[in-house]
Amino acid sequence: MNQLVDGRWSPEPFTPRVVDGEFTRPESAFRDWISADGSTGFPAVSGRYHLYVSLACPWAHRVLICRALRKLEGAIGVSVVHPYMGDRGWSFAADFPGCTGDGVGGRDFLYEVYAEADPGYTGIITVPVLWDRERGTIVNNESADLVRMLNGAFDSGGPDLYPEPLRATIDELNERIYATVNNGVYRAGFATTQPRHERAVRRLFDTLDQLEARLGRQRYLAGEVVTEADWRLFTTLVRFDAVYATHFKCNLRRLVDYPNLWAYTRELYQWPGIAATVDFDHIKAHYYRSHPSLNPHGIVPLGPVIDFDAPHGRG
């Protein structure tokens, strides 16, 4: 996988880390925290922080959704990388619709952001990244942290996505969904042995079956209000039929074969401000072009045609 070694770029082909035939996701390296009172050294100040994201990446997508729902667009800027992740990793090339270039430092590649934050950094280069303009460093590059941070640190007036009475339920849902769905599709797609692939696919669809039943009993994952757990699931579901069912061979069933999950995904897509965070041109261009071990010719399929704007019938 593309990485820096002691602050220097190591131009290796994109090869997901696999242990005993199973894809293993590396830990995020920057884990500082923004706090409302500034006690962490990173106070919640409008205009101070900047997000680096890929519109293709489901992990970055959950942070963009939180930023939109919490009404933080004016407080936290965003730069969008190019969807193609080539031999120098994520780039700021602006020759693809929706790309912005680097809105802070005028850099060419995302690895330069990491090297500036830590000149001796060794590790992979991932999105999302939250940059502190004032201190000139990365605050955090873990999406789960960033969702909680944007939800809790800034007094924006947006909805609380992690309400106190539902936290235990949300945490339990997140743990299962992350392991078997969010990361499960990657474990299936990047597996290098048949048993590991089949294990990941079975665990993925076992969870989808359970979520289908759950949504037949209640409106949202944690009850009758939308929470962080819904949006963390949504970023995988919205990509499922376009990418994961085919590119990652997660094809026991399609999302559209699940009546409750499919209606639920359409409802969330139609939530105010959410459709603007979804870009299928970026999503498909990234996955089908950036993984030569899975798709050596880089051909991007035209389909499937999916109507996320169709009435969802959920009240």
Notes on the structure:
The chain has helices at 58-69, 110-117, 143-152, 167-182, 184-189, 194-217, 228-244, 259-269, 280-290; strands spanning 3-5, 8-10, 18-19, 22-23, 49-53, 76-80, 123-124, 129-132, 137-140. The protein has 315 residues and is an alpha+beta fold. Strand 8 and strand 9 (137-140) form a beta hairpin. Helix 1 (58-69) packs parallel to helix 3 and helix 7 crosses helix 8 (259-269). The radius of gyration is 19 Å and the shape is globular. The chain starts with a strand and ends in a 25-residue tail after the last helix.
Summarize the biggest pleated sheet. Answer: 4 strands, mixed
Q: What sort of overall outline do the alpha carbons produce when their principal axes are compared?
A: globular
- Please give the alpha-carbon distance between the first and last residues: 45 Å
Q: What's the helix count?
A: 9
User: What is the succession of H and E elements?
Assistant: EEEEEHEHEEEHHHHHHH
What is the overall pLDDT average? 94
- Across the major sheet, the strand order is 6-5-8-9
Uncertain parts: none
Approximate strand percentage: 5-15%
Supply Rg: 19 Å
Helix content: 25-40%
- Summing up helix and strand content along with how strands pair, one would put the structural category as alpha+beta
Strands, count: 9
